[in-house]
Each structure stands twice: as C-alpha cells, then as structure tokens.
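Why should sequence recovery work at all? Because a backbone constrains its sequence more than one might expect. Tight turns favour small or flexible residues, buried strands favour hydrophobic ones, and helices have their own preferences. The token representation captures these environments compactly. In the example below, the structure is given first.
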C-alpha cells in the first residue's frame, strides 16, 4: 500500500533528495541553469516526479 511507508523513511528520502539537488545545483552552476531550454525543464520535472514516486 502507498501509505505504509514509515515517517522516518519518508524523512530520510526527502532529506536525501534535497541534498542531491543542492549538490547538483552546485556542480552545474547558476549560469548553466539559466541556459536551460523548455525541453530541459520538462525533462527535469519528469525526473523529479519519478524520484518523488520512488
């Protein structure tokens, strides 16, 4: 079932994804992010949705 995930596991997953996003933003840099196309943005949103459901 979807609601059977313990709160600690949810918190750890959330923190892990947050830290991963912060690291990726530091690696890629702000200038690179400003040059993203609309296709790149859609792909990022789709990947975020997949990670959220994992």
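From this structural description, the recovered sequence reads:
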């Amino acid at each position: 079932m979807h609601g059977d995930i313990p709160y600690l596991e949810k918190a750890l997953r959330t923190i892990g994804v947050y830290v991963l996003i912060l690291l990726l933003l530091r690696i890629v840099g702000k200038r690179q992010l400003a040059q993203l196309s609309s296709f790149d943005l859609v792909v990022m949103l789709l990947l975020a949705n997949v990670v959220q459901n994992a």
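A few observations help interpret the result. The longest helix spans residues 7-28.
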